[in-house]
Amino acid sequence: MPEKFSKNAARNIYYGGSLFFILLFLALTYQTTQALPQRDHRDQLTEAVARGKEIWEENNCIGCHTLMGEGAYFAPELANVFDRRGGEQAFTAFLKAWMAAQPLDVPGRRKMPQFNLSEQQVEDLAEFLKWTSKIDDNNWPPNIEG
Amino acid sequence: MKYQSQAVAKPYFVFALILFAGQILFGLILGLQYVIGDFLFPEIPFNVARMVHTNLLIVWLLFGFMGATYFLVPEECETELHSPKLALILFWVFASAGVLTILGYLMVPYATLAEITGNKFFPTMGREFLEQPTLTKVGIVIVCLGFLYNVGMTLLKGRKTVINVVLMTGLVGLAVMFLFSFYNPSNLALDKYFWWWVVHLWVEGVWELIMGSILAFVLIRVTGVDREVIEKWLYVIIGMALITGIIGTGHHYYWIGPEPYWHWLGGVFSALEPLPFFAMTIFAFNMVNRRRRVHPNKAATLWAMGTAVMAFLGAGVWGFLHTLAPVNYYTHGSQITAAHGHMAFYGAYAMIVLTIISYAMPILGGRTEGNSNRSQVVEMWGFWLMTVAMVFITLFLTGAGILQVWLQRLPEAAGALPFMVTQEKIAVFYWLREGAGVVFLVGLICYFVSFFVKGPQAQSA
Question: Which residue of chain A comes nearest to B430, CA vs CA?
C-alpha cells in the first residue's frame, strides 16, 4: 500500500464509514417498519395466527422446512403451501389429514415426525400458514412448487 | 507463554475442538438422512440433528473466540488478565449450559423442551439458529457480560493496540446484536427482519472484526512484520467489511416482506462484500512474503493463509454467485445457499479458530516455537484433507443446487417438479457430498492425532 495512505486515514475511513452506514441502516429500518403494515397485512393477524406461529416454533418446523426460503432445505417450502394444497377451499382439511398421517410408511423416504397436535392446534397452524402466504414477498417463490 | 493468565485459553480451545467433532458427526448423520430418509428415525429426526449440527457450530466458534481473546488480550495489553478465576468459572457455566441444551435437544421432543423451559411465558425458541431455550439464551447473556467485563477491565489497565480494541469492539457487537434474539413478535415479517440483526450482523458484520483481529495477531507473530503495517491493513479490511456488510443485510430482505428497493440496495452492497475478503487474502500473502523470520510453527502459518483464501472463496465468491436479486429469486433457499453456508463458515470462522489454536496450543503446552516437525506434518495433513473435502462438499452441493433450480424453480408451474421428486433426482450429488464428508472426518481425525504426536519442539530455521 502506498506510504501516503496513512494508518490515521485508514482508521478514519473505518470509524466514519461504519458510523455513516449504521445511521443509514437505521433510517432504512425506520422506513421499512413504516411501510411493512401495508405489505404484511397485519390487520388480519388474529389470535389464531399468533398461536399458530407458536406451534410452528415449539415444534421446530424450521429444522426441516423453509418458510419464505429460510430454514432447512430438507423438506418443502411452506410459505406457499396454502396455495399449493387447496387454498381457501381445502387447505385446513388437507393439513389435518396430512398431520394425522405422519410418519408416512414408505421405507427410505424422508420422515416427518408425528407431533400429536390437537385439532385446534392444527387449525391454528393452518391459519398461520395462510396468513404467511399472503405477506407481500415480491412474488417469491418463482412457482407453486416453491 | 508470556503471561500466566493466558493459560485459561486452554480449556476453551480443548472444549471447542470437542464440540467441533460433535458438529462433524452430526453433519454426517444429516448427510446420510438426505439420501436414506429414515436413517435413525424416529430416534434422531432430521430437525433435531440439524439443530445440534448448527448450534454446536455456533457454540464451538464462540468458545474458540473466547479462548482466542483470553490468549491474545494479555499479550496485546502487556498485562495479566483481570481475573483468570472468573474466566474459569464462566467456562464451566457456559460448558455445562451448552451440554445440557444439546442433551435437551437429543433426549426430549422439542415441544417438551419448550414446555419445561417455560417458552410460553417468553417465547424465543424455534427460529433457525436461535433454537436455544430462553433460559439458555439468558445464560449466554450472563456469560457474555462476565466475559466482556473481564476482558474490558484487562484492556483498561493495559496497553491499547488496534488489535485488542478492534477485537473488543467485535465482541461487544456480538453481545449487543444477540439481544435481538429475545425479540420475537407474532408478526412473522417483523420477526424475520430483526432475526437477521443477529444472524447477518454477526457473520457478515461483527464476527469479521473478531476474525480480522485474530488473523492480524497471528500474522504479526509468525511473520515478524512491523505492527504499523499490519494495523493499517486491519483498519482497511474491517472498514470495508462494515461499509459493505451493514447495508448488505439487504440481500436477506428480498423475499420476506420489505419493499423491492432492497433488491438493488442489497445487491450493490453485497456485491462489494467479497472485497474485504479479497483484501484479506492479499494481506496474508503479502505479510508472509515480507516476513522477517521463518517461524518454526509452519502449520500455524498455513492455517492463517488458508483462512484468507477459503474465506474469500466461501464468503466472497460463493456469496457473490447468488447475491443479486434476479439470481437469488431462483436460488434462494436452495442447495446453493447450503453450499455457500458450508464453505463460508468453514473458511472464515472455523479456520480462524483453528489458526489461533494452531499458534497458541503449542505455546500453552510450553513449546514456544511450535510442535515437533512430525506433529506439524500430521496437522498439515489434517488441514489439507479437511480443506479439500470442504471444497468438494461445496462443489457437490452447488451441483445439487443448480439441478434443483433447473428442475423445480425455472419451469412454469405445470412443468416444474415437486420438491421431493427433485430431491430424488439429485440424490447422486448428496451421496458424493456424504463421501466428501467422510474425507473431512478423516482429516479431522488426523488433526486430532497431531496433538498426540511427540517429538522435540520445532527449531527456528
Answer: A74
In a domain, B139, yes or no: yes
Indicate the Cα dihedral angle B63, B68, B70, B75, nearest 10°.
180
Say what the pTM is.
0.97
Residue B251 lies inside a defined structural domain of this protein: no
- Can you give the residue range of the structural domain that contains B35? 1-160
B232 to A24: CB separation less than 8 angstroms, yes or no: no
Instruction: Give the whole-angstrom CA distance, residue B379 versus residue B447.
Output: 5
Distance in angstroms (rounded) separating the CA atoms of residues B178 and B124: 12
Residue of A nearest to B52 (CA): A63
Q: Which of B38, B246, B250 sits opposite A22 (nearest CB)?
A: B246
Q: B interface mutation test: which of A49, A53, A73 has the most B CBs within 10 A?
A: A73
Of B383, B371, B219, nearest in space to B296 by CA:
B371
State yes or no: pLDDT of B18 exceeds 90: yes
Distance CA B156, CA B251 (A): 38
* pLDDT tens sequence across A95-135: 999 999 999 999 999 999 999 999 999 999 999 999 999 99
For residue B383, give the C-alpha cell.
488441514
Closest residue by Cα to residue B98 from B173, B192, B16, B186 = B16
What is the pLDDT at residue A4?
Answer: 77
Q: State the complex-level ipTM.
A: 0.97
pLDDT for A1 equals 58
Chain A residues near residue B33 by CB distance under 8 angstroms: 74, 110
Interface contacts (A, B; CB < 8 Å): 230
Residues of chain B in contact with residue A10, where contact means CB-CB under 8 angstroms, are 232, 235-236, 239
Reference B124, options B30, B198, B219, B203; nearest CA is B198
C-alpha cell recorded at residue A57: 416454533
Whether residue A3 is predicted with pLDDT greater than 80 in this model: the reply is no
Structural contact between residues B458 and B369, judged by C-beta atoms closer than 8 angstroms: yes
Mean pLDDT for chain B?
A: 97
Count of helix runs (H) and strand runs (E) in chain A: 5, 2
Count of domains for chain B: 1
Q: Which of B55, B208, B246 to mutate to test the interface with A (most CBs of A within 10 A)?
A: B246
